[in-house]
Design goal:
Two copies of one chain form a homodimer. Chain A contains 19 helices and 33 strands. By secondary structure, chain A is α+β, with helices and mostly antiparallel strands. A nine-stranded antiparallel β-sheet of chain A has the order 4-5-6-7-16-11-10-9-14. In chain A, strand 20 and strand 21 form a beta hairpin. The N and C termini of chain A lie far apart (55 Å).
Chain lengths: 738, 738
C-alpha cells in the first residue's frame, strides 16, 4: 500500500512539473455574450454542471433566465446557457424578500449586479436585501443579507419556470408541485414542468434546502392563497411555495444550501453531501478550482483581451450537456447519463470536437450516454432536455459524433451498437412526431434519394442526411463492414439530387433547390436562393446560397458542380462579400452567428486558398467577438459560437466526422495544449499579429507541413506546431485537398 | 332551498321505489377464476379502483399476484385482474413478520386464506401472524395480528414487483426506491419500476402509511443491508424498505392505513382523506357499498349458482381500467384520466360495450381520457399501463370504442377530435416501436391494401385494420363528413385482399392467407390454416381458421366469399365441432378462452340461424363458466371473459362498433337492468331452462321482434323484453341480417 501511495505521489509530482496550474479565472467574464442575443448564463455552475444557479429577470425571460431589463424575481437552480427559441427550466426559485409576500409579483428592481467565475451577486432594491450565490454540481449555496426587522423572509417558489419570448407552442407548461417545511431550518419539495423548446414530456426537479439560522416563523401557499403556519402543500396540479420568516438585525446574513435532484427529495438531500462546509467563499473556491483545472488545459501568450475572450469561450463551451450521472429517473444503468444536448445540430460542428481534443474521456462518456438513450428510449437524440428527446432540426447529427470519435480514436465506445443506432436513424421512420428524434421524411429520402417538399425542411434534411450517411459509412468502414459502408457511401451522395444546375444567382449557376414528390423542381417564382426558414419551411435556419456549400463529406464533388476550383473560389468570395438589402438594411450572406456557416470559411482550404480562410476567420474573430456583454456573434448555442472561436484562435478548425483540421490563422503568439494523454502541444505563431494573418509555413516537430490541414493524431502526439505568419499570402498550402 | 330539498327527497324516494337496493354482495366470490389461468385478482378494491390491495405469492408470480402454490410474501397495493404475459405492478408490499427480517426471503406458508367482497384475510404460518385488508380507491387499511413478543414487525418492501413466468423481455425492471420513517407511527416512500408486459417507461408509486400504534423501534434497509435505527434511505437505484417493531401481547392487532399516489408522497398522504375511520369493518363496508350499488344495476331471478357466476362476472368486469383522475404526473388537464387499458384488443368486444350499457357516464369518461392521451402523448392507446402506451396486438381498436359510442348516442365526447385521432392511427406510422401505439405496417396496408409478411402479425393486422377503418367510416358518417367516410369505407374492405380462394381445409375453400410484399401468397407448405402465433408471427393469438371469420363489419361479404349462406353455416358448424389433435390431445377450433372467437357464435344470426347461436353460447356458458376457482374459460383479460358471460346470460351480444346486439339465449327467468337514464328494462325469458334454450319469439313492450337482433336505443328505452323459450329451434329470426 505504501509503495502504491508513493507511485501515486510521484505521478502527481510529475503532473505538477509537466503542467503547472495557473490561476486563469480572472480571464473568465460570465457577462460576455449575456446580451445582444448571445444568451449566455451569468450565474454559477461547474463544468457540465447539472445545477446552474442564476437570476430570473423580466416577465418574458431570456433563455438564460437573465435579462438586462426588468425586475429580478429571484434565483433558480436549473438553467441553460446560450439557447434560443422556447425557454426551458428556470425552476426552484429562491428569493430574499421583506414584508408581506405578493405571490403575483414579488420581483424587485436590482442594483450592484456582479458576476464572476463561481459567484453571482445582486441587491434587491425593493426589499433592501442582497444575495450572492455559488454552485457545485448538484447543490448551491445562497447567502442573503437583510435589513433590520421581523419580516425578513426567504421564499421558495415551486411554480416558476422561464416564460418564453418565443411562440406559444414552445412554452413551458406547469404540471404540479409540492412543498413541505420539515423543521425551522429545512424544507423540501418539487416542481413538475413539461414542454418548452424541445416539446418534451414532464420532468420533475426536487430540492432539499437547509438553513444556517432557525426561522422565527413559516408558511406556505397554493395558487394565490397564502397559508401562514401551514407546513405542507401536496400536489394538486397547482403552484405552491413556502417561506421562512426571520427577525433580523441590520445587514444580518442568512446562508442556506440547496440540494437538487431529478429523482427525489431524498436524493436532493443526499446530493448536498458534495458541499462539506458552511463557508460561502470556500464553496465558491471549490467551484472555481474545477473550472481552473479545465482552463489550464490551454496556456496562452497573447493580448489580455484575447485571453479573456478565449478563456471565457472555453468556459461557455463547457456548460452543456449536463452531467446527470446517477440522476436518471427513467432507467437504471452502469452507463453515464448526460442530458441537455441542446442541440447536437449546433454542437457537433465545433463543441464536441473541442471536447474530443481537450476532454476526450468526457466526450466518451457523453457518447456512451447517447448509446444508453438509444438502448432505452429507442433513438439517439439530436437534441434532448428534461430527460426527453427532441427536437430534430435537420439531420440525425449524433451520427457525426460517432464518426468523429472513431476516426479520432476515442476508446471505450461500443461502436457496433452505435452503428446499429445510426442505421436505425437512417432506416426507421420516427413516427407521428418527426421533430422528436430520428430522421423525418425518409420514406422519400430512402426511395427517391431526396426529401420532397411534401415534408417540412425538405432541403435542409436532404443536405444533412448526406453527411449523416457519410458518418455511417465512416463507422462501418472502421468496423470492417464493407457492404454497409458501400450502401451509405452511395447514399451520402443523395444531396446531389437537390442540385439544380439551372438556378442562377449573382452570376453563379447551380444551387440546392426544392423538389416536389414527382421529381419536378419548384419554379423560380415559387422560391428563392435567399429564402431563409424555420420548422415548417424548406430550409431550416439557412437558405440555398448558404446550404449550397453544405457537403462537408463531398467537397470535391461540390467544387465540380460549382464549375471547378476557380468558380468555387469566386463563389466563396461573393458569399463572403455580397451585401443584400433586407428590411433592416444590408446583411451579408455569411452568417457566422448561426451554425450552417461554421465550416464555409475553411472551404477555401479545399480549393488551395488557405490565405482566404485566414482573412475570413481573422475578420470574424476581430469583428464578431469581444469582451463586452454583446461580445458574441449570436446565440452561443450551448457554447458553439465559443468553440468556433477557440479553434480558429488556435489556428485550425475541424471538419466534424472526419479526421481533418483545416488550418486557418492562429492569433496567439504561443498556445500550449495539455492533453489528457499527458502529451502537450506547443503551438507557436511566429510574427502573428493583426497584420500578419497569413501562414507562410508550418512545421510539426521541425518537419514541414505543406498541406493546409492536420490530423488528430498529429495534434495529440504533442510537441511543437510552429507557424510562421506574414502580412501577405504565401504559396504555402495552395494545393487542393483531395 | 326548502322546495329544492323536497324535490330532491321526492326524487330520492322515487328512485328507491323504482330501484330498491338489495344486498347482492353474497353473490360475489373473488376466488372465481383465480386459478386455472383465469388470473383474477382475489384482493380488495372498489370498481375501477386505482388501488388494488392483495397478496403476493410464489417466486414467479401469477399476473394477479396471487397463486395457489408457494409462500406468501405480503400484500401489495397496485395490481391488475385477469392478465397474461409479462406481469405489471405488485408494488409497495407490506407484511407482518416476527424476529429478524431476512430480506432475501421473508415469505411464509399460509393458512386460512379467505376472500370475500371488500376483504382478504390470511395467516402467515411461519410467524404466527395474521392479516386482513380492505381498500378504497386510493387507500387501504391493513389489520395485522401478532403473537406475544418484542420482535413483532411490520415491514414495507419498496423493491418488490411481480416477477413474471413469461419471457425475459416482458419482465418488470427495478429503477429506484426511497423510504423515510417520519415518526413512530408514520412512514412514506416510493418505488420506481419500468417495462413489464406493455414495455412501458418508468412509473413511480408513492405511499404514505399511518399506524394506530406507536412503534417501539424501527429500521430501514438498502440492498441486503439492514440498518436498525436508520430513518431514511434515499434513492441510489437500489432496493429499500423499512420496518416498525412492536412489543405485542398475544393476538394483539395493529392497524394501519396506506395512501397511494402516482404523483408524490404528499398526494399519497392527502389521498388518505377518503378513509375517515379507523374502524376496519366500516372501511370494508364502504368498499362493499360501492360494489353493491354497481351490482344492483341488474336484478336477477334464476339459480343461485348462475347468479353467483353473473354477479362475480359483473365484479370482475369492472376492475379495470383504473380511475386515476387527479393522479396524472404527465400533464395537467380538466379531462378525466384512466390508466390500465389492458388491452383494448381484449376489452373493445364485450367489456366496453357493457360499460356503455350499464355505466355510460364512466364509459364517456374513459373515452375522454383516451382523447386526452391522444392530445398529450400523440396517439390513443390500444393498451396502456403505468402511464405509458403499449402494446398493440393487432389493430388500433380504440377506434371501435368511438364508433360504438357515437352509434349508441354516448354524449360529452369530442367526436371530431376522436376522428382526428383515429385518422392519425390510420395514416401516421407510429415509428420505430410499432408495438407501442398506432398501426404497424401501414406503409404496406395504405399502399398495397394489405400488410405483407415483411411485417409482424401481418394477417392479424390486415384483418383488424378493416374493422378499424369501418369505425372511422362510422364516426365520419355520423359527423357528416362523406369524403372521409367514403375513403375509409372503401379501405375497410382491404381484408378481402388477404382472402385466398384457393386454400382448402376440412372441405371448405377460401381462407385468410399471408401475402408477401410482391403480392404473392405463401405456399401451403410454408403455412397452415391451423398455425397459431404471437408477436413476431403472422397471426397474433389466433390462426387462419378462426380469423377467416373476422370481418365483423362486412359479414355479408364474408358469407359470399365463403360460398353463400349454407356453406357458411356448414363452415361454422365445422368450426364449432371439429377437434384437432395436438401435442396435448384434442382441441377444438373454437377458443372462447380468447377474444378472436368472441363474436363467432353470433355469426349464425347473420345467416338466419340464431338457434345455432343459442346452442353454442349456452354450451359455452354451461361448460366453461362455473363458481370454482377455475371457473373461467381462460384468462379473464381485464374482465372480458366475464363480460362475454354477462351479455349471453342476458340473451344478447354486441357487435362492437355497430348499433346491433345479436340475440343468443337468455338463461335467467327474469333480469332487470336499471339504466343510468333511470329507465329499466325487464328481460323475461319464459320457460327458459337448460333444455329450453331456443328462442320461439321475442316481444319488446308487447310488440313482436322478428329479426334476431336489437338496437341500443330499444334496450335503454326500457320496458319489457319478453322471450319465449322452447326445447326446439323455431322459425323465429331465421332471416339473414342484411
Amino acid at each position: 500500500m505504501k509503495r502504491l501511495a508513493l507511485v501515486n505521489f510521484l505521478l502527481f509530482v510529475s503532473v505538477i512539473l509537466l503542467h503547472a496550474q495557473t490561476d486563469l479565472t480572472k480571464y473568465v467574464d460570465p457577462w460576455i455574450g449575456t446580451d445582444g442575443g448571445g444568451n449566455t448564463f451569468p450565474g454559477s455552475c461547474v463544468p457540465f454542471g447539472m445545477v446552474k444557479a442564476g437570476p430570473v429577470c423580466g416577465q418574458k425571460n431570456r433563455n438564460s433566465g437573465w435579462d438586462k431589463d426588468g425586475n429580478i424575481h429571484g434565483f433558480s437552480h436549473v438553467n441553460l446557457s446560450g439557447l434560443g427559441g422556447g425557454c426551458k427550466y428556470g425552476n426552484v426559485l429562491f428569493a430574499p424578500v421583506v414584508g408581506e409576500i405578493n405571490i403575483q409579483d414579488y420581483s424587485s428592481p436590482r442594483r450592484n449586479e456582479k458576476a464572476e467565475l463561481g459567484i453571482y451577486e445582486v441587491e434587491l432594491q425593493k426589499y433592501n436585501t442582497s444575495a450572492r450565490l455559488t454552485a457545485l454540481n448538484r447543490s448551491t449555496m445562497h447567502e442573503y443579507s437583510f435589513p433590520e426587522g421581523t419580516e425578513s423572509k426567504i421564499l421558495v417558489d415551486l411554480g416558476t419556470f422561464l416564460a418564453s419570448l418565443a411562440s406559444v407552442n414552445e412554452q413551458q407548461i406547469f404540471v404540479g408541485s409540492e412543498v413541505r417545511i420539515i423543521s425551522d431550518h429545512e424544507m423540501e419539495g418539487y416542481t413538475r414542468i413539461r414542454n418548452g423548446w424541445n416539446k418534451g414530456n414532464a420532468y420533475t426537479v426536487y430540492f432539499y434546502a437547509v438553513f444556517d439560522t432557525p426561522a422565527a416563523d413559516y408558511g406556505t401557499w397554493k395558487g394565490d392563497k397564502m397559508m401562514p403556519g401551514v407546513k405542507e402543500q401536496f400536489d394538486t396540479n397547482e403552484k405552491t411555495g413556502a417561506y421562512f420568516t426571520y427577525h433580523t438585525k441590520d445587514k444580518q446574513s442568512i446562508k442556506f444550501k440547496v440540494g437538487i435532484s431529478y429523482l427525489s427529495v431524498g436524493k436532493a438531500k443526499a446530493n448536498l453531501s458534495e458541499m462539506t462546509t458552511w463557508n460561502f467563499d470556500e464553496v465558491k473556491e471549490q467551484c472555481v478550482a474545477v473550472w481552473n483545472k479545465l482552463l489550464n488545459k490551454v496556456h496562452l501568450k497573447g493580448s489580455e483581451e484575447n485571453k479573456k475572450i478565449f478563456y471565457t469561450a472555453l468556459y461557455h463551451s463547457h456548460m452543456q450537456p449536463a452531467d446527470k450521472i446517477g440522476e436518471n429517473s427513467k432507467w437504471q444503468s452502469d452507463q453515464p447519463y448526460y442530458d441537455d444536448f441542446y442541440a447536437i445540430w449546433d454542437t457537433f460542428r465545433a463543441s464536441h470536437p473541442l471536447f474530443t481534443l481537450l476532454t476526450p474521456s468526457i466526450q466518451a462518456d457523453m457518447l456512451r450516454s447517447l448509446l444508453d438513450i438509444y438502448r432505452y428510449d429507442g433513438y439517439m437524440p439530436d437534441a434532448r432536455s428534461g430527460d426527453d428527446n427532441g427536437r430534430v432540426q435537420g439531420g440525425s447529427n449524433c451520427d457525426i459524433l460517432f464518426a468523429d470519435a472513431i476516426r479520432k480514436g476515442i476508446r471505450g465506445i461500443d461502436y457496433q451498437l452505435a452503428l446499429e443506432a445510426m442505421i436505425k436513424n437512417a432506416e426507421v421512420p420516427p413516427g407521428g412526431n418527426e421533430q422528436k428524434q430520428g430522421r423525418g421524411g425518409i420514406p422519400d429520402y430512402n426511395t427517391k434519394g431526396y426529401v420532397s417538399t411534401k415534408y417540412e425542411r425538405s432541403a435542409s434534411r436532404t443536405m444533412e442526411y448526406g453527411n449523416c450517411d457519410y458518418a455511417i459509412y465512416t463507422v462501418a468502414s472502421e468496423l470492417s463492414q464493407p457492404e454497409i459502408a458501400k450502401k451509405y457511401l452511395n447514399r451520402s451522395k443523395n444531396w446531389q439530387n437537390l442540385w439544380n444546375p439551372d438556378i442562377e444567382s449573382l452570376g453563379f449557376k447551380g444551387f440546392v433547390w426544392p423538389r416536389r414528390e414527382d421529381g419536378s423542381w419548384l419554379s423560380e417564382s415559387e422560391f428563392s436562393v435567399f429564402k431563409n426558414g424555420t420548422w415548417p419551411d424548406i430550409f431550416y435556419e439557412t437558405y440555398s446560397w448558404e446550404m449550397s456549400f453544405y457537403a462537408p463529406h463531398d467537397i470535391n464533388k461540390l467544387i465540380e458542380l460549382c464549375g471547378g476550383k476557380d468558380t468555387f473560389i469566386d463563389r466563396l468570395d461573393t458569399f463572403f462579400s455580397y451585401q443584400r438589402s433586407n428590411r433592416r438594411g444590408y446583411i451579408g450572406l455569411f452568417q457566422i452567428s448561426n451554425e450552417p456557416s461554421f465550416l464555409i470559411p475553411c472551404l477555401y482550404n479545399y480549393a488551395g486558398r488557405p490565405d482566404k480562410t485566414a482573412e475570413i476567420t481573422r475578420r470574424a474573430l476581430r469583428e464578431q467577438y469581444n469582451t463586452t456583454r454583446t461580445g458574441l456573434p449570436g446565440n452561443d448555442d450551448s457554447g458553439s459560437m465559443s468553440a468556433w472561436y477557440i479553434f480558429h484562435a488556435l489556428g485550425f478548425f475541424p471538419n466534424a466526422g472526419q479526421d481533418i483540421y483545416l488550418f486557418s490563422s492562429p492569433i496567439f503568439e504561443e498556445a500550449t495544449i495539455f492533453f489528457e494523454n499527458k502529451n502537450k502541444l506547443e503551438i507557436r505563431a511566429k510574427n502573428a499579429s493583426e497584420a500578419n494573418i497569413y501562414i507562410q509555413s508550418v512545421k510539426l516537430n521541425e518537419k514541414p507541413i505543406n498541406v493546409n490541414f492536420i490530423k488528430h493524431s498529429d495534434l495529440i502526439s504533442g510537441g511543437t506546431l510552429e507557424f510562421v505568419m506574414g502580412p501577405k499570402p504565401s504559396k504555402w498550402g495552395n494545393n487542393e485537398i483531395r
